[in-house]
Each structure stands twice: as structure tokens, then as C-alpha cells.
Amino acid sequence: EVGVLNREISSLKSHIKGLQTNIRVLYIQTKKVLKEQFKVLRGIVKNELDRKGVDNQFEREHKREISRHRDFDRER
């Protein structure tokens, strides 16, 4: 009975490892896709605002957020 339980535990650990790998791949791919989509959206918004001569608050906030991340990464 202990042998059966050990095999089941081993099988479950293997299954968990596979699921973790799948989740990691999905996360990375989703992040890439969203990054590209937001890059396109930022470009569209920027072009539209430039065309209308409006101050681009969206772009300023984006640059500020990137700066915060850089500062945070430096602190670590």
C-alpha cells in the first residue's frame, strides 16, 4: 500500500511539474502578445493626439511607470 501511494505521489508531482511548465509558457506568451497590442494602441493614441495637437497624458504616464519599474529594479 505504501508503494502504491509513493507511485501516486510521484505521478502527481510529475503532473504538477508539467502544469507549472505549461503555465509559465502561457504567461510568457500572453505577456508578449499584450506588450505588442499595447504598443500598437499607444501608437494609435499618440498619432491621434498629435494630429489633434492634444497634450499626451497617456504617454507621460507610461514613461513615468517605466521609470518607476527601473527605480524599483535598481533597489533590488
Automatic annotation (TrEMBL):
Domain of life: Bacteria
Protein name: Mobilization protein
Organism annotation: Bacillus pseudomycoides
